[in-house]
Amino acid sequence: MTMTFRTAALTYLALLVLLALTVGSTFLSLGPLNSAINLGVAALKAGLIALIFMHMRTLEGVARLTALVVMVWVGFMFALTWIDYASR
Amino acid sequence: MTGDVASAEPEATGRATSELGVFVFLASEGLLFGALLLVYFIDRLQNGSAFVAGSRELSLLLGTTNTAVLLSSSFVAALATSWGEAGRSRPARVALVVTAALGACFLGIKAYEYLDEASRHLLPVFDLAFAPPGDQPQATERFFSVYLALTGTHALHLLTGMVLMLSLAAVWSKLRRPANVLRLAALYWHFIDVIWVVLFPILYLVR
């Protein structure tokens, strides 16, 4: 259960590399791909922190459900608001 | 042997229950930030080009530095957690103080950014002069309003996290199972980090 120093250090390193990648990509004009890279990298970084630092990998039962369900609710909130906005 | 199992089980259950409590709390925090992000999302749909112009006015260097500072603080908090669980109290407490210090460093840089933006008349708050560059000041004001709401709410959370980390380091030896409390406090800290990881690209990198 306990995270090893190696795991924590590798995760940290990966997070810094991803940060460099996303900042570096803003200096290239890639059109819509810029936003895609930024959001993709943000999702990867958030995923690494959640799964490893917040040890959600090993989370079980109701706690795992709680963590997942918030994404579903936020998803609903965004989807329904966007549908309302787009159909005016 | 049977006695060991019997005494170990309630502790494991207690830990799982308190962890569930923290995740429920974090879920409600997720909804709070979700609602603020929704405001950003709708405003950006309406004022796309003004959001690009607004984002360009923010300091990419300071934003990137702050992201690195916060990622480092999460790394140190993760180390504190595993040291605490290994029973190494002293390094765990030092790591807690370092985590809070990195949080203070983040807030210091953020405060400098706010001051710099205020001096360039970019913050639509407290009757400060607001005069952004570009030909659509009203749309740009939307960007800086959401920017203030998002980063301000995040900064308040970070401040709470710092108080939590420092208090834990201070009362460490008085707690019965400090490592378990640390595990819960670290969840909150990492959550604040996740929020910043989402805020950074949508505020600083819309160029």
If you had to describe this structure to a student in words, what would you say it looks like?
- The complex is a heterodimer of chains A (88) and B (207).
- With 88 residues, chain A is mainly α.
- Chain A has three helices and no strands.
- Chain A has helices at residues 5-25, 32-53, 61-86.
- In chain A, helix 1 packs antiparallel against helix 2.
- Chain A starts with a helix and ends with a helix.
- With 207 residues, chain B is mainly α.
- Chain B has six helices and no strands.
- Chain B has helices spanning 2-46, 48-57, 60-85, 89-119, 137-171, 178-204.
- In chain B, helix 1 crosses helix 2 (48-57) and helix 4 runs antiparallel to helix 5.
- The longest helix of chain B has 45 residues, at 2-46.
- The radius of gyration of chain B is 20 Å and the shape is elongated.
- The mean pLDDT of chain B is 89.
- The chains are: A mainly alpha (88), B mainly alpha (207).
- The interface between A and B is large, with 45 and 45 residues.
What is this entry, summarized?
With 88 residues, chain A is mostly helical.
Overall mean confidence score, pLDDT of chain A = 89
Q: State Rg of chain B.
A: 20 Å
Largest interface: A-B, 45 and 45 residues
Largest sheet of chain A: none
Total E-strand runs of chain B: 0
**H/I helix tally of chain A:** 3
Structural class by SSE content of chain A: mainly alpha
Structural class category of chain B:
mainly alpha
- How would you spell out the order of helices and strands of chain A? HHH
